[in-house]
Amino acid sequence: MEGEGVCYSAGNDMISELPQCIIGIILSKMPIIDAVRTSLLSTSWRYKWLALTDLVFDDKSFDAMTTEKVDDFITKTLFLHNGLIHKFALSSWELSSSPNIDQWLLFVSRKDVRELVVEIGESEKLCHLPSCIFSCKNLTKLVLSGCAFDARSNLNGFPCLKDLELEVSWNGKEEIEWLISTSPLLESFKLMYFHSDSVELALHAQNLQRLYLEGDISNISLVCTPLLVNVFVDVSTVEDETFASLRYHPKGDFYTFFESIPKLERLAWRGFFVWFLGIHDKSPRLSSEAINEHLKFIQIDDVDFGCSKEVRILIHMIRNSPNLQHLVVSCYGDFAAQGSAIQEQEPFVESLYDNFPAFSTLSKLKTVELIDVSGRTYEGYLIKLVLAHSPNLEVVKISPERRFTKDKRYGFFIDLLSYGRVSAKASIIFAERAY
Questions:
Q1: DSSP-derived secondary structure letter, 386
Q2: Average pLDDT in the 367-387 region?
Q3: Whole-prediction pTM value?
């Protein structure tokens, strides 16, 4: 075959002549079933896929295949594979009832696996994992979803584990705490907890740096996490009944939460921030002492700007974060009921602004983003406060709520332009949010 100045013979196969390491990279980017099928190309390709060290079996790889065929394919692939397996991922909800799961995991546990992902169960029908997975001493990452397990059978723990992700729909307090306590190098922990009863966990993790919590985490305490710098909490999925009980009987404590994370740099919180941390309007602990001098990024979603308590706590958090650089707040509230109640509380908002200490200059703050702004009084005062105390502020980005009409937006924007600002380069930008 002849091209533009380049001649290829019929038998010339450039891909086959690539180094095995390059071929391995190419095969690793393909769905596992296609990588195995390359064995049919020619005799020289028959065994190339056996060098794969990452075996990922997921629903995307088995489109239109029956569960029985998928089961048979996984079994044959594993037993033909004669090399090391550094990553093994089994992510298919339809395989939760397969009789071969224990056999697959036993095989993989003897292959020096470093990363293990098992996502095969459902909340109504959990998959019980065999104890052999706890014999994988070189594991650096473990992801379990829809699985029940007895971690106490693992007497020696995971000495190399750095990344742990659990999606739990059963009350596994002892198992979760055991996994963490027997993983001395753990740096990242992600827990998605969807059981009807909140789990009481005391986290002891000396090297933990990143923490992601989703679900009812009201009874989770950070007892010993001295190196934790990044926290993401999502409680927006909590049922209404749980939220109602927390509103009148809060379990957390705002300052205890921050005092347990002395090096926190990044905090993102979605849903019920005030209620989960047990804030009270007249809490004597809301002092001028810094919450965390390392905090650089704050993102709080669903702040009700019709609630004086939430606004007060948000302002205290901003004021007590002297090294804050980036602030993101999404607004929440009853759009139709923002009139009289807000007007009645304006003196309180005025006092928040007037009493903001002069020494609380936000000298490091560069960017502020407010999402779903609807023109509430509290929203305007928050912007006023930021503009007046941020000498290095670069931009305030405002994304209006969809029902915030253009006429009202114009009036709100005119008010913002009248606010004094200490940063000569600070700009205010209105930008539509993409829904």
A1: H
A2: 89
A3: 0.83
